[in-house]
Amino acid sequence: MSTLKSSAENLTLNADGSGNDVIIQSNGSTLVTVDGSQSSVGIGTATPTGNAKLHIYNGASGQASSSNNTEVVVENSSNTGIHFLTPNTAVSGLWFGDPEDNDVGRMYYSHSDDSLQIFTDTEARVRIDSDGIKFGTDTAAANALNDYEEGNHACAFTSDSGSITVGRNDLAYTKIGNIVHMTGEIGISSVSSPNGTKMSLPFTVASHTNDRNMNWGGQGMICYSIAQHQDNPPCLYSSAGESHVNLLYQQDDGAFIGYDAAAGDTYMFSFTYKTDS
What we know:
Blueprint: E1 22-26, E2 29-35, E3 40-43, E4 54-57, E5 72-75, E6 91-98, E7 101-110, E8 115-120, E9 123-129, E10 132-135, E11 148-152, E12 157-158, E13 163-176, E14 179-192, E15 197-200, E16 223-228, E17 235-237, E18 244-250, E19 256-258, E20 266-274
C-alpha cells in the first residue's frame, strides 16, 4: 500500500509549469483529473468538458460540451441523475440565491409529509403531494388538482328505439379536475325510425345534485351549453350519474320532449359539465 499524507499541515500536489494537470490514477486508470489549463476537475475522465468546473463522467453522452453557464456536469452513456439521500424526517432540494436573498427560490422534497414544494420570490407557489397539485400555501385535499386530460371523443348517437348512424365525428374534450369541457361537430349520415336522441360522453355526469352552478333543477344538467342545429337548436340534458346526454326540443307550450335526429343533421357543440371521475 502506498500512502501520501500530511498530519501537521496542508498537503500540496503541484504539477509545476503553466497548464499542467494533476492526475490521480489507480492501476493505470485515471480517476480524477485537475485540468490546469482551465481550472476544472474531472471525475472519471482525463478531459473534463471545458465549460464546467466539475465534470462527473460515467460514459459518453454524445454531446461535445456543456452550456457556457454550467458549472457542474453529470454525464453518462445512458440514464443519469443526482441522488439526494436523507432521513425520513428531513428535506432535500435545491436552493437559489442572489445578493438580496440567499433563498429567493427553492425546490425541495419534504420526507416528513412526502410533498414536493416550489418557491419563487421566497413565497410558496406549488405543492405536489398525494392529493394532487395545490397552489400557494393551500394544503386542503379538497382543493387539489388531481387530473388533467385532453383527448378526442368518438361520440356515439343512440336512440330509445330505431338507430342513428354518425358520419362526421369531430369532438374534443379538455378535463381539468372534475370539470369537462367539450367542443366539436357531429354529422348524422342516416337514421332508422329513431325515438329520441342520446349522445355519449367521455365521462359520467356528476352524481351530486346540490351544486347550483353545475346542475339544473337538481337533476345533473349539462350546463352552460350551446348546441346549434340549423334553425331548430335542441338543448342538452342529462341525469346525474349518466354517461350520455339527451337532446331535447322545446315545444311552443314550453314543454321539452325528446329530439329525433334526422339524416343530414349537423350539430356543433360547446358545453361544460361536472363529473365524479
